[in-house]
Design brief:
127 residues, mainly beta, 1 helix, 11 strands
Length: 127
């Protein structure tokens, strides 16, 4: 059974940093797509960043490029999202997600989502 558990959310001032963690079980990163999505109050879910085991690229939505970094520790089966220079517009519930289908591009996953989802962790950025 695939499980994804996020942690690391909280309250931070604008310009600050947070690192989110997603502990995965029931699969390994060798043959999966995995990434981060977010949903702000009153808005649709948005793909933030992901990587796909079938290629060497990392993918980011334009609004976080240069500020957020996705990484993984395969030994710990954990994926991270380092968020720097946070803005109030980054306030959202952040979800970790994964998919067994690795034949799509990261751009596809950021737009259409993935198959498995964590319960989310709240990030609040104050001005």
């Amino acid at each position: 059974e695939v499980q994804l558990v996020e942690s690391g959310g909280g309250l931070v001032q604008a310009g600050g940093s947070l690192r989110l963690s997603c502990a995965a079980s029931g699969f390994t990163f060798d043959d999966y797509a995995i990434g981060w999505f977010r949903q702000a109050p009153g808005k649709e879910r948005e793909g933030v960043s992901c990587f796909v085991s079938s290629d060497d690229n990392t993918y980011y939505v334009d609004s976080v490029k240069g500020r957020f970094t996705i990484s993984s520790d395969n030994a710990k089966n954990t994926v991270y999202l380092q968020m720097n220079s946070l803005k109030p517009t980054d306030t959202a519930v952040y979800y970790c997600a994964a998919s067994r289908r690795t034949y799509n591009s990261g751009t596809y996953y950021l737009r259409y989502g993935m198959d498995y989802w964590g319960k989310g962790t709240l990030v609040t950025v104050s001005s």
